[in-house]
Each structure stands twice: as structure tokens, then as C-alpha cells.
Amino acid sequence: MAYSQNQTFDPLYTGPIITSSGNNESPGEWCLQPYFFYADNYGIYTHRGDKHTTAKEYSISPQFLVQTGLTKWLDITVTPGVIYKWNSSDEEFGMDAIPVKFGLQFLKEKWHTPRPSMRVTVSESIPVGKYKDLDPNKNGLDAFGAGSFVTSLSLNISKVVFWFPTHPMQLRLNVGGTIPTKVKVTGFNAYGGGYNTDGTVTPGNRIFIDGAFEFSFTRKWVLASDICYHKVSKAKFSGNKGTTATGAEASISLDSSYSFELAPALEYNHSEKFGVLAGAWFSVTGKNSAAFNSAVLSLVWNL
Q1: Contact 47/255 with Cβ under 8 angstroms?
Q2: Smallest Cα–Cα separation from 206: which of 178, 236, 181?
Q3: What single DSSP character describes residue 174?
Q4: What residue ranges define each of the domains in the chain, with the CATH number in brackets?
Q5: Is the alpha carbon torsion for 224, 288, 186, 91 positive or negative?
Q6: Per residue in 229-256, pLDDT tens?
Q7: Handedness of CA 214, 215, 218, 221 (dihedral sign)
Q8: Strand ranges (E), the chain
Q9: Mapping DSSP to helix (H, G, I), strand (E, B) and coil, where does residue 96 land?
Q10: Angstrom distance (rounded) from CA 212 to CA 108
Q11: pLDDT in tens, 34-65
Q12: Which pairs with CB-CB distance under 8 Å and at least 24 residues apart come from 262-265?
């Protein structure tokens, strides 16, 4: 790639924690990226935006991203994973949904010009985890996923800029939304419920705006951060909500929600083929959403 007059190196980037690249993998090339998430879910943001501390729940979530090019303009990404969760009295192990994503490249960036990389991704999240007929004594610890097939559409943009020639930056932006299918729920379930609950939940649609920057201290050492806003519309329920242990009507979580999150990280890019990413991911504010802190470690191999 061409160098500017004052540019001292060709930057390397592993990528931030959340925001996806505007570039597909080329045919015959593979990206293998295991992730390790450790999360402390310590509270909730109420409908007024107040943060309330709840009984702590912890989780470890290994995921393994595999991405490869199918044609010059199409690639595929699959990210299976498992979750181990525990609290002060119990523990559970299971699988969450498996996302399968296709990327359609329609613009490739040119360095030292305004032209960015752009692609559209279409993904389907396949539910495989348990989400209904849960144990009433585990307070949702045995729920893995929401039981819904979720279709997602996103516009992904990325661009390397040389505002500081000796410290180039990569900027990323993802804007999109999700449409989930209806979910049959019985008993205690991921949406709430109780004894004799029997009905159908139509989850709310979600919109998301994820932005990120990667600032090169040197060619190998990079500071990155994601800034994320997610909003979910109100859900709908039809059927019998069931009852609690006291005989009162059970609750089904249907309210709209939003969350604002940050994910700062440090990258070490050993070469174009291998890199390491370590950082944190945490909630800043929200409404009807989880309050959490998490640590993240990821390794990247480009083959």
C-alpha cells in the first residue's frame, strides 16, 4: 500500500471487541478468532434509568469465530459458543444461539482518499439453548438465549485515516437492526412467566449503532474502544401468563429498553497473521437492561 510523505509504517489492526469491519475475507483466506468473556452481571437499570444492584450472576463464555471468503464479494462468518454461569448457590452450563453471517462487499477503501470500505451483512441467529420450562428455584440461571430466530441487517463501514501520520487510526461504524420471530413460551422462561404459563411472545425489534476507533501507538501496539447504543422496542404477549407461588399473576418482560456500553481494549499485533486483543466491556447506562462488567481476551489468526 502507498505511504504518505510522513507516514512511518503500514498499520496493523486486530479489530475492536464489538464493532465489525467493513471488509470481507477474500476467497481462500480464513480468519480464526477465539474469544473469552468473563462477565459480572450485578444489577439492572430500571424503567426510569436508575441502577439497582441485584444478586450477582457470573459467566464465562468462550466463542470461536470462523470467517472465510466465498467469492470476491461474499464471505461467511460462523460464531458458535458455550456459556458457564453461576451464582452464590448454583451453576449451569449450556449453549446460546449460533449466529451465521453473510457479508456482501460493495466498496473497498483506498488509503489517503476519502473512500472507505463498506459492506452489508445479513445474519441469522439460530436458537439452540434452553429458554422455557425452567426451574423456578434457579431464578433464570438455567436460561440460555431467548428461543427466537433473529434476522439481522447491518451496514458496516471502516476507514484508515492518517490525521496523525506517525499514529494512524482505523475508524469503524455499524448501523442496523434485528427482527426476531415469535416464541412459544411455557412455564418459567427467559421472558419471565410462572406456573402454568402458556402463550406466545413477540420480541421487540432492536436497532443498534456501534462505533469504534483503533489508535496506533506503534505498528504493533494499538489502543481501541467501542461505543455502543442498542434500543429494543416493546414486546407483545398473548395467552395465559400463569401465576407465581403466591397465586398472583406472573410477570412477562415486555417493556422497551435501551443500553449504552463501552469496550476499551489494547491490541498487540505481532504480524499480519497473528494478534492479541485484551480489554473490558461494561454498561454505562440504560433502561430495563442489564448492568454488567466484563473482561475480554481474544486471539486472531489470519490464514
Answers
A1: yes
A2: 178
A3: E
A4: 30-302 (2.40.160.40)
A5: positive
A6: 999 999 999 999 999 999 999 999 889 9
A7: negative
A8: 30-45, 51-69, 74-78, 82-86, 91-95, 98-107, 117-126, 150-161, 169-180, 183-186, 198-202, 206-216, 221-232, 236-240, 257-269, 274-287, 289-302
A9: coil
A10: 19
A11: 999 999 999 999 999 999 999 999 999 999 99
A12: 262/225, 262/226, 262/227, 262/228, 263/16, 263/17, 263/18, 263/225, 263/226, 263/228, 263/296, 264/223, 264/224, 264/225, 264/226, 265/16, 265/17, 265/223, 265/224, 265/225, 265/296
Judged on CB neighbours under 10 Å (0-12, 13-18, 19+), 207 is middle
For the chain, the residue count is: 303
Using the predicted structure, report yes or no on whether residue 2 has a pLDDT greater than 50: no
Q: Which of 106, 99, 80, 100 is nearest to 23 (CA)?
A: 106
Per the structure block, which three cell numbers stand in for 205?
Answer: 425489534
| CA pair distance 238, 202, nearest whole angstrom | 9
Widest CA span of the chain, in angstroms?
75
Q: Is 258 exposed, middle or buried (0-12, 13-18, 19+ CB in 10 A)?
A: middle
Which residue is it, cell 407461588?
245
> Which residue in this structure is represented by grid cell 501520520?
165
